Amino acid sequence: MQPTLRRMLSEPAFRVVLLTASDRLDDPLSWVSSSDLADPSPFLLPDQFVLTTGLQFQAVSGQGDYDDYVARLAASGVVGIGFGTEVITTGTPPGLLEACRTQGMALVEVPYDVPFVAIITWAAREIAREAAARDEWALSAQQAISLAAVSGGGVSAAMRETARQLEGVVLLYDADGEFVEQHPAGRIADRVVDAAQADVRTLLGRGRRAGASQAVGGREIVVQTLGRGDRPLGAVALVLGAPLDAPGRAVMMTGTSLVEVGRERDAADSAALGALGAHAVRLLARGEAALAASLLSEAARAGAVDIGAVDPSSSVVVLVSAGPAASAASAASAEEVRRRLQRTARTATPTRLAAILDGELVAVASPDGEQWLRRAAEDAVAGLSAPHPIDRFDVAVQEARAALATATSAADRSGETAIVGFADTSAGRLLDVLADSGLPAVARLRLAEVRSTEEGEESVRLAALWFEHGCRWEAAAEAAGMHRHSLRTRVERLAARLDLDLESFPARAELWALLSLS
Questions:
Q1: What is the DSSP pairing of strand 17-18 with strand 315-321?
Q2: Which of 41, 40, 93 lies closest to 63, judged by CA?
């Protein structure tokens, strides 16, 4: 147990007496020393107890000298002053007593027959005993953390035991500075969490191993990055009630190192699972759903429980995303979305799988897992197929890619991410896909002669209005402010110039496409 003034006062052999009140009686003492210098403060450490016989007070000229002496020691962090009586003066000087009482400094009267060296030896012995106990605790704590990490619990177990031993909270962040998990669970003040994440992102941005600490809201935040600068694995943040001493830092480093080892292993496992998942997706694309199901089932039995599964009898929906490569609006990369899907792969849906193929995310789920796909890709640009039997997986992929083209086009126009379903807007979807081809130029060329005159331009506008009103002449004419016969004449004349017969549905469809694409 660390020595304190209260413990010293309770030692029967010392017979010391507390003369002034203080709120630091229970503060741990860093050392006890004796000095009769008029100003010993340059030679003192914080949290020391200073013994003096008062030789320096023989030259004092008034109360101000005592006040200055006590103020200098208080500024150095001294916990209290012990005055040895009957050596230089009889009793404790009233001026010193007044100065200590005024400034809240503990003043302890030491009897003549109690050697200073006895008090110093007692404190040194207690400090050494406490240091030995802390070292023993640190060794035991490091063993407990190591055992937790190697007993199958991995990263989470190492974090949980580190938090328990340090009586704090451990937060884990990924290589992008995004929160991954916390141990133990519980509410932490928002400003503490924000400060921890800000430090994490700053340190990760330096591209090298780094650490930092700061005090926020009465809590100590210690951050340490994981992995090498050229291959970051994330960072750990510890939220503690007080700064760490040397044994505490040793325990923290053991916990951090084991988390780092676990993250290294997880990264290797993730790469292996990614390759396995990509192979399973390729098997689905080749129509070999049973083989893909068997492959994933064997992987799950071997311990890869989060990779996913395939039910050969299930229908599927497919989500495709290329992340920032697909659109500047996308905030999440395909790999980030895949990691989210993998972290939440234990779902009730019988089919769930996500893999990266040539930089493109292909995620598969049973129809009841569509929301799982949408949540993971919420800040990405993605396309989602309609449900299909698993033996039509290739069709589902093509639908998802067509929807992705629409989502990309919409995101580039609006600057916002979007997940577009193939069935959302069939007409708009097809036109967006066609808009990325060379057909708009063909449509503009086809209408160029018509639009070369004001009358032709007006006819194009009226035809578009007619299509907007579902090809209903009466409604379109009312919107145009003209008689339906006049409207019909203008639109049919336009169609004739383009060699189209509006009585034919294909001709109407062609005119609508020309107007929409131009």
A1: unpaired
A2: 93
Predicted model pTM: 0.55
Each residue's pLDDT tens digit, 217-266: 889 999 999 987 677 888 999 999 988 889 999 999 999 988 888 877 76
Give, for 69, the enclosing helix (H) or strand (E). helix 63-75
Nearest residue to 270 via CA among 323, 311, 234? 234
HEC per residue, 276-319:
HHHHHHHHHHCCCHHHHHHHHHHHHHCCCCCCCECCCCCEEEEE
Judging by beta carbons within 10 Å of its beta carbon (0-12, 13-18, 19+), is residue 227 exposed, middle or buried? middle
State the DSSP string of 336-401: HHHHHHHHT---S-S-EEEEEETTEEEEEE-GGGHHHHHHHTTTS-EEEPPPEEGGGHHHHHHHHH
Residue 362's nearest CA partner among 268, 270, 282 is 282
**Each residue's pLDDT tens digit, 401-459:** 888 887 887 777 777 777 888 877 454 455 555 555 566 777 788 888 888 888 888 88
The first and second tokens of residue 500, run together, are: 């189209």
Asked whether 182 and 173 are in contact (CB, 8 A), the reply is no
CA 64 to chain centre: 56
CB 378 within 8 A of CB 360: no
Rounded Cα distance between 324 and 318, Å, is 19
Helix (H, G, I), strand (E, B), or coil: what is residue 154? helix
Cα distances (Å, whole numbers) of residue 365 to 341, 345, 385: 11, 10, 11
Go through 273-309 and write b for each residue having 16 or more CB atoms within 10 A of its CB, e for each that does not: bbebbbebbebbeeebbebbbebbeebeeeebebbbb
Q: Which amino acid is at 443?
A: A
Q: Which amino acid is at 25?
A: L
Residue 69 CA to residue 73 CA, distance in Å, equals: 7
Sort strands 315-321 and 80-84 into parallel, antiparallel or unpaired.
unpaired
